[in-house]
Amino acid sequence: MGGLSVDLCGIRLDNPVIPASGTFGYGYEFAAYYDINVLGTFSFKGTTREPRFGNPTPRIAECTAGMINAVGLQNPGVDQVIREELPRLKQCFHKKVMANVSGFSLEDYAYTCEKLDREEQVGWLEVNISCPNVHGGGMSFGTSPDTAAAVVRAVKSVTKKPVIMKLSPNVTDIVAIAVACEKAGADGISLINTLLGMRIDIRTGKPVIANKMGGFSGPAVFPVALRMVYQVANAVSVPVIGMGGVASAEDVIEMMLAGATAVEVGTANLVDPAACLHIIRDLPAVMEKLHMDRLSDIIGGAARNG
Amino acid sequence: MKDGIYTIAENSLIAAGVYKLRLVGDVSEIRKPGQFINIRLPGFYLRRPLSVCDVDHGAGCVTVVYKVVGKGTQALSQLGTGETLQVLSGLGNGYDVSVAGDKPLLIGGGAGVPPLYFLAKTLKDMGKDVAVVLGFNTKDEVFLEKEFRALGCRVTVTTVDGSYGVKGFVTDALPAAYSCFYTCGPEPMLKAVWKTAQTGGQFSLEERMGCGFGACMGCSCRTKTGYKRICKEGPVFNKEEILWED
Ligand SMILES: Cc1cc2nc3c(=O)[nH]c(=O)nc-3n(C[C@H](O)[C@H](O)[C@H](O)COP(=O)(O)OP(=O)(O)OC[C@H]3O[C@@H](n4cnc5c(N)ncnc54)[C@H](O)[C@@H]3O)c2cc1C
Ligand SMILES: Cc1cc2nc3c(=O)[nH]c(=O)nc-3n(C[C@H](O)[C@H](O)[C@H](O)COP(=O)(O)O)c2cc1C
Ligand code: FES
């Protein structure tokens, strides 16, 4: 098992597999199904200052090899997360958890991060500046290097924990945004969040999703995500977490070769609740076949190999 | 909740566009009427939720009845005996039979009829006097009527065009007296039942689902007792909890 471990911002992970925010709740739906302590860690549901119901339904649309969601950051708010979800999680998860945070103003981000910073079980703050679902919300921060950097500074001033900035792929130059985040003090970068997408029901002529548009994810987005991870990992020196369409041990290795230190798995958990368990179980055999002793050695291998 | 491979023992047309699918596999997690299973179909990314219509724990088989409404159910209808499917079972809360009283009423419309069969069977086993009102558009679409009668239920069928049974909607044919009601069907029917019904009762709701087991928040609804996930805290809700949004 030693060959699977990686270091993420100074915290050792038993393996690089991390369920992605929004697809794993606060962990315990899955804990009832398998021992989630096998995970490297997981990123919990995007948490905001106030409780949110999110968008009207339908929130889900099926696509070829993927789906669109417009959940709209439904969550019980940071106070209830601290009061109820985290104590419950402690019962079934004995590792550091990644706290995913979203906000609608710099003050929101700072407020929520400051509260989560005090929670012992929180190992990293993953700051979502990319959620495409909320009008005038997260989207605007993640689409310009200046506003992205402003969020980094706001958050870094209230926490000692590693701050990982989660980027939106719905931008013209993702490298510029990643570099701006690093310069502003980010300890890591994670990407990609969902791609803005849409489906129309041709029988009714209306958008399938009540919010009209939503975030596209799943295996279909993998090549786009991989490309962005490659570009960003070659432009920054902080660790990068790769995600987008990952569904197998092979996908994890490909993401790491592109430059990811760890890999998040999102939508795959929804169609196969044991997806991460299977990936972790399959990794050693796939590594052996590829003559890889340690995953930490292959990070960014594609750039080195030409 | 359990994910497993099931073998198709039967997949047959029982009414216009309606199929009965019997699957053999591990049914140990299926405990209550009103629960559903989530079926992975070759070539489709998301699973398809279908209510449990009947379960035989001894023989290890579960029956669902589905209506072909789109590409997924169309593809499902093409599968034959002996083929296998990946199925997540034991999902949802199910109906609460402890509130039935002695004369429960079951009201089903179209593709909402199937879960009521498992419910009727459970209530008959408990010795209840069960009345069933089933609504369909037209005669060709009527299904499960004989099966409900065979359980010993008092059955009334309505069709919108009057081609079979009582002409009209289920709410035109509700019996005068009942102790409690249970319903499943299209939203306009549920709303009409909600307005008409004289007693307390339970509704099974539907929503497009990402996961079916509480992970994605795709299926949330507002209720008088807070935000609920239809796949997890539902699909069955008490009459008093429901807030219709329109
Ligand atoms: C808890 C639950 C129980 C159900 N039980 C039954 C049943 O016993 N018998 C039956 O005939 N139907 C039932 N349905 C509806 C059934 O799931 C849909 O008709 C089916 O998913 C349609 O798939 P499709 O590919 O043919 O349609 P498409 O419209 O092509 O499907 C596209 C997407 O929309 C989703 N979708 C479409 N219609 C519905 C719907 N009405 N509800 C939820 N998701 C939908 C599909 O799952 C798929 O992800 C149930 C739905 C839910 C939520
Ligand atoms: C239903 C759903 C909800 C999501 N919610 C969040 C969220 O709250 N915060 C966040 O940063 N990302 C959220 N995401 C994005 C995922 O974490 C991930 O970045 C994206 O889906 C790409 O990975 P995947 O293709 O493996 O799913 C959500 C994705 C899905 C499908
Ligand atoms: S469908 Fe995912 S939470 Fe209900």
Give the percentage of residues in beta strands of chain B.
Answer: 35-45%
Count the domains of chain B.
Answer: 2
| Annotated CATH architecture of the largest domain in chain B | 3-Layer(aba) Sandwich
The proportion of residues forming helix of chain B, as a percent range, comes to 10-25%
Question: Any low-confidence stretches of chain B, pLDDT <50, length ≥5?
Answer: none
- For this structure, what is the CATH class of the largest domain in chain B? Alpha Beta
Q: Work out the helicity level of chain A.
A: 25-40%
Mean pLDDT of chain A: 94
CATH superfamily of the largest domain in chain B: Nucleotide-binding domain of ferredoxin-NADP reductase (FNR) module
Q: How far is it from the N-terminal to the C-terminal residue of chain A, by CA?
A: 29 Å
What structural category arises from helix and sheet content of chain A?
Answer: alpha/beta
Query: What value does the average pLDDT of chain B take?
Result: 96
Second CATH tier, the architecture of chain A = Alpha-Beta Barrel
Distance between the termini of chain B: 32 Å
Please explain how this structure is put together.
- The complex is a heterodimer of chains A (306) and B (246).
- Chain A has 306 residues and is of the alpha/beta class.
- Chain A has a single domain, classed as TIM Barrel (Alpha-Beta Barrel), CATH 3.20.20.
- In chain A, the strands form four sheets. A seven-stranded parallel β-sheet of chain A has the order 3-15-14-9-8-7-6, with helices on one face. Chain A has a four-stranded antiparallel β-sheet with strand order 4-5-13-10, with no helix packed on it.
- The longest helix of chain A has 15 residues.
- The radius of gyration of chain A is 18 Å and the shape is globular.
- The mean pLDDT of chain A is 94.
- With 246 residues, chain B is mainly beta.
- Chain B has two domains: 90 residues, Elongation Factor Tu (Ef-tu), domain 3, CATH 2.40.30.10; 105 residues, 3-Layer(aba) Sandwich (Rossmann fold).
- Chain B is 14% helix and 36% strand.
- In chain B, helix 4 links the parallel strand 12 and strand 13.
- Chain B starts with a strand and ends in an 8-residue tail after the last strand.
- The interface between A and B is medium-sized, with 35 and 26 residues.
- Flavin-adenine dinucleotide binds next to strand 4, strand 6 and helix 1 of chain B.
